[in-house]
């Protein structure tokens, strides 16, 4: 197992009917900005309930944060904060709102263009650059990204998506009430299941380093999502099923399962380029890329693929190669069982898309991806060609 540091200060508030606790979680003298997305939080009455829970605090609102949040939207929010003197931000929504809020709270205290903070985001924004971002919390309405309990974000700018990390942008708290996810559109639930699943495989399907605890945590998340994936889509108000979905999504990307083990992330980074170029949902791009990537990288991932086959899919017969092939096929079948196609052609994309995405990867410096840095543009081309 690799050396590692593990740090996660986010206070999780899990369960139904807990919005009233915002009054104890947000500082009493705070001037609060609520950030949210396309308006469903307003139409459902959730924003009004949150404002009521915040009591006598001065509350401002900034809506319209889009899926795959843009730098331009973040810049407008930063200008709003500087104009109104906000000192605490409450993100209400899914991963896109939380991701945007992470850049917003850094930009709000940075004496310079927000784009400079975004561009400094890998490996992480230097503490001396933004030493005092505004504190923020979250009220989650979409289980998918894990952004509610980590220090990372992905921001869209131009034709690219840019990761941004800072050790200072863990949410102070995140409120996870499964009932707030009951009214999600079916497509978003499907995407959330896939995102949770692939977050886990990115940290699990690499190569063995005897990280036994991490492997068992990962396998537990994967098995849970296989068990509940279709049901959480078809029975959205089954509280116990949705509660497991919500918590699995958080655990899949709060840093726990990735400590001390190699991590891949090529599926995500290739998928980000598909989203930026063709506006495909993030979950859809992961369903397209992952099975093809596992096929192309099978020999490098063989030991973990065989373990995945046995422990997650209960495939016990055959050689390692045969087990790996069956596990990859099962993975594709799982995504398809949710009603999500795993081929580019089903979204009207052909060979021209392969050329475009490979060019974007090169333009954005994504030329040494994967746990071993060996997913070159040529390998990415092979992966995307298999995904046709």
Brief rundown of the structure:
This protein is 47% helix and 10% strand.
Number of helices: 15
Strand content: 5-15%
How many angstroms separate the termini? 37 Å
The ordered string of helix (H) and strand (E) elements is EHEHHEHEHHEEEEHHHHHHHHH
Main sheet record = 6 strands, parallel
Low-confidence region ranges: none
Q: In which order are the strands of the major sheet placed?
A: 1-8-5-4-2-3
Structural class: alpha/beta
Query: What would the average pLDDT be, to the nearest integer?
Result: 97
Enzyme class: oxidoreductase
Domain Fe-containing alcohol dehydrogenase-like C-terminal: 192-360
GO molecular function: alcohol dehydrogenase (NAD+) activity
EC number: 1.1.1.1
Written overview of the protein:
By secondary structure, the chain is an alpha/beta fold. The protein has helices at 22-25, 40-43, 46-53, 71-84, 95-107, 114-119, 186-204, 212-234, 239-252, 266-278, 282-296, 302-311, 320-337, 351-363, 377-386; strands at residues 11-14, 32-35, 59-62, 88-93, 136-140, 152-157, 160-165, 173-176. The strands form 2 sheets. It has a 6-stranded parallel β-sheet, with helices on one face. Strands 6-7 form a two-stranded antiparallel sheet. Pfam families: ADH_Fe_C, Fe-ADH. This is Iron-containing alcohol dehydrogenase. One of its GO terms (molecular function) is alcohol dehydrogenase (NAD+) activity. It is an enzyme of class 1 (oxidoreductase).
